Amino acid sequence: MAEKDSQNPDIFGQALLDFYNENYTEDITVISSLTEDDEIPVPYLFRSYEEMPLVEQEALELAQGKTLDIGACAGSHSLYLQDKGIDVLALDISEGAIEVCKNRGVKNTVVSDVLDYDENGYDTLLLMMNGTGIFQTLKNTEGYLSHLRSLLKPGGQILVDSSDIAFMYEEEDGSYWRDASRDYYGEVTFKIQYKEQTSLAFDWLYLDYKTLKTEAKKAGFTCEKICDGPHYDFLARLIKTTS
């Protein structure tokens, strides 16, 4: 979402830096292909463990061993794991986000797209805040999962949350409409705005659990649902198979 040129500004990074440096004056606006504009409150990105939803708390309790926090944002998950004594590396494509992670005390960080990152030997990969979003589209999912698999030790785990957004297509009569231009109903296109800057459009993927399990099996994982959240969201654990 955050590239290093003026055409696609590091919006999350700038918003995080502004909040950290006490220059917070507005939130991030999300422009969606599916719904009306929404906002991401910047303070929420700095939430404590107690302020996190159940699916995130459960994931943090299951994380173990050498851990990669993918899409670390302001570092809230990394800091919690670090305080527990877990060897965690915060990864984000946003330079501003990683600067904030460092300023907040995250010891190990890297600025990178996860597909460009190839250090392996991890016990846990953490993908939170609708972690399946980084796959972008359903057809990309197996490829992303295969790359993530290469980063894991045998028996290593991916902890990922997502949401089944089928409810957003339901009509008043109980029927469902579908966007014929999409391969899968969980594919959404977003732009984000902050302080008069707007990102380029990017694809984001919401996967239902059944589809995630199918894609995980293709990529060499077993998959189990750990828990459901209060609004069609869930946490899943993918385990790297030995075959």
Automatic annotation (TrEMBL):
GO terms for biological process: methylation. SUPFAM superfamilies: S-adenosyl-L-methionine-dependent methyltransferases (SSF53335). Keywords: Methyltransferase, Transferase. Residues 68-159 form the Methyltransferase type domain. The keyword Methyltransferase applies. GO terms for molecular function: S-adenosylmethionine-dependent methyltransferase activity. This is Methyltransferase domain-containing protein. InterPro entries: Methyltransf_11, SAM-dependent_MTases_sf. Pfam families: Methyltransf_11.
